Amino acid sequence: MSHRKDLIGIEDLTAKEIIHYLDIADRFASVLERPIPIVPTLRGKTILTLFFEASTRTQISFSVAAKRLSADVINFSKTSSSVAKGETIIDTARNIEAMKIDGVVVRHSAPGAAKYLAENIDAFVINGGDGSHEHPTQALLDIFTMRQHFKDIAGLKVLIVGDILHSRVARSNIFGLKKLNAQVTICAPPTLIPIGIESLGVNVHYNLDEIIDKYDVVMALRIQLERQEAGLFPSIREYRNLYGLTRERVKRMKTGGIIMHPGPTNRGVEIDPDVADGDRSVILTQVKNGVALRMAVLFVHAGGKIE
Ligand code: CP
After folding, report:
1. How far is the CA of 144 from the centre of ligand 1 (A)?
2. Going by DSSP bridges, is the β-strand pair 203-205/183-187 parallel, antiparallel, or unpaired?
3. Within 13 Å of residue 300, how many CA atoms lie on the same side as its CB?
4. pLDDT(307) > 60
5. CATH assignment of 10-134+287-301?
6. pTM higher than 0.90 for the full model?
């Protein structure tokens, strides 16, 4: 399959392209089970992780993924770079070009930053999260984890609970899950739901207790604590009482239903500690799958060929 130079968002992809990433990730998941989990596929390539915002999972797992593919990896963060001295993203891009980097994974607070970078450099660009726009590899690893668990995404009932308004993870998941014919419902206080979200083909609910027993997957999103200061919900305690994944609520989920969370979690706010660590939780499986999925993304965009 021919592929795009860059991965900016799930909105741009076809269902076939999404499945292609997932199928390749399946192969790399097997590689990661070997005693020596390294393949020479990207030997001689250099990947830069260019993170203007904090990250634990995304930056580390791209870095591990690149190393498992035998690529050279350079990790860059805002605080340790000349960006902290006022250098612009386009100057940064020109320096990347001068150093003959093959691929860049970028995270930035501005929606559109990854696209802008992609349009200005020859290296392939993977969006590691741009503001509230998209986080495509998070959605791909989430969908990969759902497919691993349930075999088929079509018809799967997925509930996303939390701050949909500011969530790039929710947007990317909604695009991907709808393209693969899942049924997607979102649930949050009305102030945390974007106007017109129904046009993406999702159902909207406000009362978690009325619906939690209906879903195969319940995905909690991080409540960004600064949102409370902006007056978007009355208090952390009230949010937890109405929307938190508590032990009592989770007991009412469907048999076989799973709990997901992209991380980082606010334990005791959107998810209780015993739920995050409980039998239904696949949160660490998501993190584990992130490496195989990101190996697949780097492989595809570096022009790798499956024998
Ligand atoms: N899920 C996610 O993007 O986590 P990080 O912010 O730690 O990368």
Report:
1. 17
2. parallel
3. 27
4. no
5. 3.40.50.1370
6. yes
